Amino acid sequence: MPISFDLAPNSQKARDYFHEMARSQMRPLSRRYDDEEHGFPTEWVDYYWREGREGPPDMDIPGPSDGFVQVCIQAEELCWGDAALYLRIPSPALGGSAVASAGTQEQRERFLTPFRGEGAPVWGAMAITEPGAGSDTAAIQTSAELDGDEYVLNGTKIFCTSGEAASQHEGGFVVVWATVDRSAGRGGIKAFVVPAGTPGMRLGGLEKKLGIRASDTATLVFENCRVPRANLLGSAEVKKKKAGSPGDKGFKGAMATFDASRPIVAAMAVGVGRAALDFTLEMLEAEGVPLRYDAPLQTQSAVERDLIEMQAELQAARLLTWRAAAMMNRGRPNSLEASIAKAKAGLVVTRITQKAVEILGPAGYSKKLLVEKWMRDAKISDIYEGTQQINQLIVARRILEYSSSMLR
Predict the structure, then answer these.
(1) Catalytic pick from 313, 337, 372, 385?
(2) Cβ-proximal residues to 355 (8 Å cutoff; 6+ apart), any chain
(3) What CA–CA distance (Å, rounded) separates 297 from 302?
(4) pLDDT in the model for residue 257
(5) Quick check: 4 pLDDT over 80?
(6) Does pLDDT of 362 surpass 90?
(7) How many CA atoms lie within 13 A of 295 on its CB side?
(8) pLDDT tens by residue, 15-44
(9) HSE (CB half, 13 Å, CA atoms) of 279?
(10) Residue 203 above 70 pLDDT?
């Protein structure tokens, strides 16, 4: 049976729709909000909430190749426009994925319904990373103590994407990972939904960053922050298990959000890499520099060889991303494929954007062009949602069938 890599009609329609949005709405704002790091992009947020969140207005009934693949296509196109502004869009984001995967039906309706309403823009966020706990979730120190019908949260979370918007705007929420029993390791870690404006949750500051500077990256502090017992995602039961065990369904459900988020981050990386590659090709074409695909390798220039390799690597990252997304569509486990896509895309976008700056020389290094910005924006793709090293470790464990205690 022949294999087709053509997009389904709906996905192609979405690709065209979001590409035009990226070109007309995001690119003109890109440099401004990179320079105004903590400025709020009101015009973009309002436009997306009004026009973008529903997607193309004339979509057909979704087919088997739509769904999550289409989400990744949207991420690629909008990050071709600007990755930081993409991260600013009002959405439930990773926090919403945790609610959807580990929450009850009542919790999903309570926390996710505002994102489907006609009111003001709403954001969700996930708060995992701490000053002393990054990739090792077992090292989380933020505590949650049960006091009657409420949990009392204390601790500090850093690098929370959309943390300011989710904690400050009515209807938003932050999913906070905290331990109810440190002696239980990962088995004692639970996820709690903290609605915006909850007393005891405050903004500790905003990060100044190398790239994605328009993105809201916040420190959140929890000081005797009380949330109802009903805001716990998953089971309250603490099961002490052997080292390397993932813990209860709630923890595994929250962790499963990464199987969904890593293909999206990979798609974002592909979008940034494509922006740099497209622009470089346009600049060289304008200067009359040909790209000869059919020329023998030994007769091609170094620039031609670089650009052809960049194109091939970008397409490889895209197809790996779509594969991981298609598996999500079909309800198949995709932890291995999601980490492969994330690791590949993180490496590819870093190399492509650096090479684009190199090929374009002083012009590429100058702030007169967006190429240097894309290089700065690219690096985070190799860090968040699991570093390059962590994703390679996950890939090795899945292929070798080793537990986390067997391969560290």
Answers:
(1) 385
(2) 306, 310
(3) 10
(4) 81
(5) no
(6) yes
(7) 12
(8) 999 999 999 999 999 999 999 999 999 999
(9) 26
(10) yes
Report if pTM > 0.90.
yes
Q: How far apart are CA 175 and CA 189, in angstroms?
A: 12
pLDDT of residue 249: 55
- Domains of the chain with bracketed CATH: 9-91 (no CATH), 94-245 (2.40.110.10), 257-400 (1.20.140.10)
- Give 296's contacts (C-beta < 8 A, 6+ positions apart): none
The stretch 61-69 carries a mean pLDDT of 68
Which of 154, 160, 158 shows the shortest CA–CA distance to 178? Answer: 154
Determine phi and psi for 34, rounding to 5 degrees.
Answer: -70, -40
Q: Which amino acid is present at 127? A: A
304 catalytic, yes or no? no
State the residue for tokens 């067997």.
406
Burial classification of residue 300, based on how many CB atoms lie within 10 Å of its CB (0-12 exposed, 13-18 middle, 19 or more buried)? middle
Q: 34 with 96: CB under 8 angstroms? A: no
**pLDDT confidence band for 247 (50 / 70 / 90):** very low
Phi-psi region of 149 (alpha: psi -120 to 50; beta: other; left: phi over 0): alpha
Q: How many residues does the chain have?
A: 408
